[in-house]
Specification:
It is a single chain. The chain has about 110 residues and is mainly alpha-helical. It is about 40% helix and about 0% strand. The protein has 4 helices and no strands.
């Protein structure tokens, strides 16, 4: 019936990355797994985060789902998960923490007891 047709039309779109608009695939890192549930390729999500960090847009309001109707802030656990697993991703996470002034870097000669 009509309900089945609607599901067939909606389902393929749900597999499209909201950033590149291509089907989410393992070639682009698989599903990013955003907690808001919107589909994105993991690689696209990392590229999006990279552009935000490079622009210094690292507040909670800015680091969010890129879908304008959603804009749900990304959780710290999402950022850690997306920005781990490779040196490039880890460097990006370090940059993010630096911008947010959350990364502890001891001064030269500083000692801890």
């Amino acid at each position: 019936g009509q309900e089945e047709e609607a599901c067939v039309l909606i389902t393929p779109m749900s597999l499209r990355c909201m950033i590149c608009l291509e089907l989410v695939s393992n070639d682009r890192g698989g599903q990013a797994g955003l907690t808001c549930g919107h589909p994105a390729c993991a690689d696209c999500a990392v590229d999006y985060l990279g552009s935000m960090v490079q622009a210094g847009r690292v507040s909670e309001e800015e680091l969010c789902c890129p879908l304008p109707d959603c804009r749900r802030p990304l959780q710290e656990s999402e950022l850690v998960r997306l920005l781990s697993g490779s040196r490039r991703h880890e460097e990006l996470y370090e940059q993010l923490l630096d911008f947010q002034a959350k990364r502890f870097v001891p001064e030269a000669g500083e000692r801890f007891v």
